[in-house]
Write a structure and sequence with these properties.
The structure holds two protein chains of two kinds. The longest helix of chain A is centred in the C-terminal third of the chain and has 28 residues. In chain A, α7 packs across α8, α12 runs antiparallel to α13 and α18 crosses α19. Chain A is 29% helix and 24% strand. Chain A has 20 helices and 27 strands. Chain B is of the alpha+beta class. Chain B folds into two domains: 75 residues, Ubiquitin-like (UB roll), CATH 3.10.20.30; 69 residues, [2Fe-2S]-binding domain (DNA polymerase, domain 1, Orthogonal Bundle), CATH 1.10.150.120. In chain B, 33% of the residues lie in helices and 16% in strands. The termini of chain B are far apart. The chains are: A alpha+beta, B alpha+beta. At the A-B interface, α1 and α18 of A face α2, α3, α4 and α5 of B.
Chain lengths: 757, 157
């Protein structure tokens, strides 16, 4: 039977309540097992040797001394990981990033690995590996990298997607374009046009748990991998391909995950651990140090963005244009493309054009970071919109309301919007008590909007009814922030039974079909859709069983409130059968009761937010402090409102860190100078105020309960909101983040000089 | 050359042999199987490995295993009394003060040490009392509220 994903308004019993999470007790008692908490019998310690150079040719690697050291069981180089990618450039790049083949492309790039009986031996062995490098000129800055004479990372990189095929190679791997209308005509219709360049520095997701895995490959070609990941099925597929293993013979188990935010969507050292295990014939455990996490996992892009927007005095935005250069690390990515797609997505524009550039630099391969690419683009666009509003003497919030996208708007990246939340979040901001809170000395208030697509994707889910009538919900999407609770709520709702009768488990790759990873805010959206479908299929089975028990046609059985009911006056004497009663009889009516769903979850509803923030700037030191913060975001339907609030607050806090403190600092030698939490400072408890949240619910028409993804959009507006607040406090436009004290002081000094002149 | 150390962990006598350069963190995790103590940085910057040593909050990655000789170590594994959770543990779950949960053991230790010294802290005192612990998921809002609520319960208010 085809299952209907469309939204139907209903009153909920379980969905929207706030029960305790099923993994709570394990996590407050230390019982929960994370990546580094698992051991296998006789496992070896794996360590990776990393390049000290930003860019160098590998002339020779001598592992002979390391191999001879007592206690060393395997030493590995790229020679042990032959290229099996069969022309798949994306997979080849992953392979090359896991273990450099001919060149190292960044400080921290892996060049060799060892497995030894203990940490001390492994460390000693690393020192015995001799790598002969030919150091090459490097480039780490995104604007330097696009210059014609910049050091080239790849001799054969010819820009894809430009107007014409370039004659010369460059570090611009790809250009993508979006938009509609005629921007030049639009600018001609404007009363005021502002064009500015904005820069953002590279930041890291900063998950507290470093990457960790334990790998075991047996001589018969089967393997086991325990790993902290956002997507163990994807890790399985990638590792199997890179190692030439059968997908079905590699079983991957996801540990509890200590934060990911996009950074654990990608294999880094897992294929190396498997290859070491295969070579040593013993299990191998690799746990990254924090320094390795910073140097050699996948931070987000540094960017340089040119934005031009025109406005009429009546507040109508006539045209918007953006050129967005995103540093991609050494390999092609799609971060510039996502920046180009998201930059103007909040607005209803007649004329809009964006171009995204994927720029190769000698920095680690950029990975996703929560609504990847959108925060930087929003910073640029939302800053200029604020400035334009001021220039025409209008309230920046009103200008946004006037130009907000709505149902039927053709988005700047192509599709036409269905029902969306940008207008309602802005209207809610206008009415929010935060707007009336008095501002103190040296304080300013800023607003900004944000957009994220949200993803759906491949999802496979099982519902199994136990003999006692309790239900196991088995999902393949990793729980990053409470989804086991929200998914159990949806299945309880559908079956009509209490939440505590449904236990949700994240299965290993041997138990379910492929699931895409928990990214793109898809965990609750996709797995709840699959869970609801699996529950509906389960109900069909339950109805058949009840029909058998009653010996009546199944067409006369309905499912209501967790019970089978015989429909029609002729069955007046039949008492409803509970799920528990049907389950107890299952052995005599056809065996175990279960329902499954294998779907591509289409129709992820787009997500919008508006943030309000008050910032206090100390004019003596340039230090900025967020004193009041409000997040207003559309959730479609908040399945577990407390955890939705948590996503809103967490994204805002990460955005605040990005705006004020966090940045990768590279020396002239191309080495990362701050690979630790002391010098790469993420917000601590005393840096932040309480973060107020308001959940709006504009149902997603493509989900049975109206659910939209909620995880990512909250990181999109903060940088812009804070920059606008600083601007409103002091009249200086901040165009470079983080707005660290030296940058703010410099801006304040420059503003003073302009005033005097 | 390994050194034999005799200590008390979560109220129980414990003995272990460790290298002189081995951290208390590694001893707790690798030799005593107390993996509730987490390593987030190994440099004393994130607080995930927080334990209470003779009543004082420390980063166990900055303490040597041999320094535990004759002293009392408390970890998250010792917070609950059987099935009865410590009020901080209960309130962390109730307020959703954890998302991924990897920083939670460290926060619980830091909050316990704070409330033992200051049973009725202001919001600001809580924020500064927990400033040595990094959380990347929550934005700290729900953590502060959980500690406020637990403090109230513990004061019997």
């Amino acid at each position: 039977m085809p299952l209907d994903a469309s939204y139907h308004a209903k009153s909920f019993k379980s969905v929207g309540t706030r029960p305790l999470r099923p993994d709570g007790i394990d996590k407050v008692t230390g019982r929960a097992k994370y990546g580094a908490d698992h051991n296998m019998p006789g496992h070896l310690v794996g360590l990776i040797l990393r390049s000290p150079h930003a860019h160098a040719k590998i002339k020779r690697i001598d592992i002979s001394k390391a191999e001879k050291l007592a206690g060393v069981k395997a030493v590995l180089t790229a020679a042990d990981l032959p290229d099996l990618t069969n022309g798949d450039q994306g997979m080849f790049d992953i392979l090359d990033n896991c273990m450099a083949r001919t060149k190292v492309f960044y400080d921290g790039h892996a060049v060799a690995a060892v497995a030894a009986v203990d940490m001390a031996t492994a460390k000693q062995a690393l020192k015995l590996i001799k790598v002969d490098y030919q150091v090459l000129p490097h480039v780490t800055d995104v604007d330097e990298a696009v210059k014609p004479k910049a050091p080239l990372l790849h001799e054969k990189c010819f820009t894809e997607g430009g107007e014409s095929k370039p004659k010369n190679p460059s570090n611009v791997a790809k250009i993508t374009e979006f938009g509609h209308g005629d921007v030049e005509k639009g600018f001609a219709e404007a009363d005021i046009v502002i064009e500015r360049n904005f820069k953002t520095e590279q930041t890291h997701q900063g998950y507290i748990e470093p990457h960790a895995c334990v790998a075991s490959v047996s001589p018969d070609g089967t393997g086991e991998l325990w790993v902290c990941t956002q997507g163990h099925f994807v890790y399985r597929n990638h590792c199997a391909m890179l190692l030439g293993m059968d997908v079905s013979k590699l079983r991957v188990t996801s540990s509890e995950i200590g934060g990911g935010f996009g950074g654990k969507t990608h294999v880094w050292m897992e294929p190396v651990a498997l290859a070491l295990s295969r070579k040593a014939n013993r299990p191998v455990k690799i746990v990254m140090t924090r320094e390795e996490v910073f140097r050699a996992s996948g931070p987000t892009s540094a960017t340089s963005i040119d934005v031009k927007i025109g406005i009429r005095k009546d507040g109508t935005i006539t045209a918007g244009k953006a050129e967005l250069r995103y540093a991609s690390g050494p390999y092609l990515s799609m971060w510039g493309e996502l920046g180009a797609m998201t930059s103007f997505a909040c607005y209803d524009l007649k004329n809009v054009k964006t171009r995204g550039y994927e720029v190769l630099v000698n920095r680690p391969k950029s990975a996703a970071y929560r609504a990847p690419s959108a925060p930087m683009a929003a910073f640029a666009v939302e800053s200029v919109i604020d400035e334009l509003a001021k220039r025409i003497g209008k309230d920046p919030l009103e200008v946004r309301i006037q130009n907000a996208a709505k149902q039927g708007t053709r988005s700047s990246y192509g599709p036409v919007y269905g029902p969306i939340g940008i207008g309602p979040t802005l209207e809610a901001a206008r009415k929010h008590p935060h707007m009336k809170a008095p501002l103190g000395k040296n304080q300013g208030r800023g607003y900004a909007c944000g957009f994220w697509f949200n993803f759906g994707g491949q999802t496979c889910t099982d519902v199994n009814v136990g003999p006692d009538g309790t239900v196991t919900l088995t999902v393949g999407t990793v729980d990053v922030g409470g989804s086991r609770a929200s998914l159990a709520l949806c299945v309880a709702e559908e079956l009509g039974i209490p939440y505590d009768q449904v236990k949700c488990t994240v299965a290993d790759t041997g138990a379910l079909g492929h699931n895409d990873m928990t990214d793109g805010s898809r965990g609750t959206f996709s797995s709840s859709m699959a869970g609801i479908f699996a529950a509906r299929n389960t109900i069909e089975v339950l109805k058949e069983r009840a029909a058998k028990m009653w010996e009546i046609p199944v067409s006369d059985v309905a499912w209501e409130n967790g019970h089978a009911k015989a429909v029609g006056s002729k069955y007046g004497n039949l008492a409803p059968l509970s799920l528990k009663e049907i389950a107890a009889a299952a052995g005599n009516t056809g065996g175990p009761v279960a329902g499954h769903a294998e779907i591509v979850a289409d129709g992820a509803g787009v997500s919008f937010a508006t943030h309000i923030c008050d910032v206090e700037v100390d004019p003596e030191t340039g230090r900025s402090r967020v004193v009041r913060y409000t997040v207003i975001q559309d959730a479609g339907k908040a399945v577990h409102p407390t955890y939705v609030e948590g996503q809103y607050q967490g994204g805002a806090a990460q955005g605040i860190g990005w705006a004020l403190n966090e940045e990768y600092i590279y020396g002239k030698d191309g080495r990362l100078q701050n690979p630790g939490f002391l010098d790469y400072r993420i917000p601590v408890c005393s840096d932040l105020p309480m973060i107020d949240t308001q959940i709006l619910e504009i149902p997603n028409p493509n989900h049975p309960y109206g659910v939209r993804g909620v995880g990512e959009t909250s990181i999109v507006p903060p940088i812009a909101a804070i920059a606008n607040a600083v601007s409103n406090a002091f009249g200086v436009r901040m165009t470079h983040v983080p707005m660290s004290p030296p940058r703010v002081l410099k801006a304040l000094e420059a503003a003073k000089k302009t005033k005097k002149a | 050359m390994a050194v034999l150390v005799s200590t008390t962990v979560n109220g129980d006598h414990a003995e272990f042999a460790c290298e002189p350069n081995e951290t208390l963190l590694d001893v707790l995790r690798n030799r005593l199987a107390l993996t509730g103590v987490k390593e987030g940085c190994g440099t004393g910057d994130c607080g995930s490995c927080s334990v209470i040593l003779d009543g004082r909050l420390v980063c166990s990655c900055l303490v040597l295993g041999i320094e535990a000789e004759g002293r009392k170590v408390e970890t998250v594994e010792g917070m609950a009394h059987g099935a009865e959770l410590h009020p901080l543990q209960t309130k962390f779950i109730e307020h959703a003060a954890l998302q991924c949960g990897v920083c939670t053991p460290g926060f619980l230790m830091a909050a316990k040490a704070l409330l033992e010294k200051n049973p009725d802290p202001s919001e600001e005192e809580i924020r500064f009392g927990l400033a040595g612990n990094l959380c990347r998921c929550t934005g700290y809002d729900k953590i502060v509220r959980a500690v406020q609520d637990a403090a109230k319960v513990m004061r019997g208010a």
